[in-house]
Design brief:
Blueprint lengths: L11 H9 L19 H12 L8
């Protein structure tokens, strides 16, 4: 099964709900990408997606 990062699984209503309830929302990203002890795969995804502007560099 192929996934498309560009399409993503971001839901505008869900992100709005989360933010309005004080939750830090990472649009299009996985929280594990920001864990200092993350595995190499998550670190690479964070680097690539941060460089392309798909996710924030920091949360």
């Amino acid at each position: 099964m192929r996934t498309n990062v560009a399409a993503g699984s971001v839901s505008a209503p869900a992100t709005e709900y989360g933010r309005s309830h004080g939750i830090t929302v990472i649009d299009g990203g996985c929280p594990l990408m920001y864990d200092p002890a993350a595995d190499l795969g998550h670190k690479v995804m964070r680097c690539v997606l941060s460089c392309t502007g798909k996710v924030p560099k920091t949360v």
